[in-house]
């Protein structure tokens, strides 16, 4: 029973001082959780970045063509 509570609450016991220590969440795991939670917003942001980069390439090519003439 105690072991399952420790597994659910993610509590570890310290080897040296015999004290309780809680696991710290990593930055990447927090970021991945937010991405999975807000999939629509993530898709919108990624597509906006992609469209902006394509637009920049097209505009630079257009300016290059105008300079040739």
Description:
The chain is mainly alpha-helical. 71% of the residues lie in helices and 9% in strands. The chain contains 3 helices and 2 strands. A hairpin with a 6-residue loop joins β1 and β2.
Structural class: mainly alpha
Number of strands: 2
Helix and strand element order: HEEHH
Q: Report on the biggest sheet.
A: 2 strands, antiparallel
β-strand amount: 5-15%
What's the mean pLDDT score? 80
What is the fold's blueprint, element by element?
Blueprint: H1 2-9, E1 11-13, E2 20-22, H2 27-37, H3 39-68
Short description:
This protein has 69 residues and is mainly α.
Please describe the structure with a list of short key phrases separated by commas or semicolons.
69 residues, single chain, 3 helices, two-stranded antiparallel sheet, mainly alpha
């Amino acid at each position: 029973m105690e072991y399952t509570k420790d597994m659910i609450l993610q509590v570890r016991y310290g080897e040296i001082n015999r004290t309780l220590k809680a696991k710290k969440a990593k930055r990447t795991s927090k970021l991945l959780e937010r991405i999975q939670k807000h999939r629509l917003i993530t898709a919108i942001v990624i597509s906006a970045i992609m469209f902006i980069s394509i637009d920049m390439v097209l505009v630079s090519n257009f300016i290059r063509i105008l300079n040739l003439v």
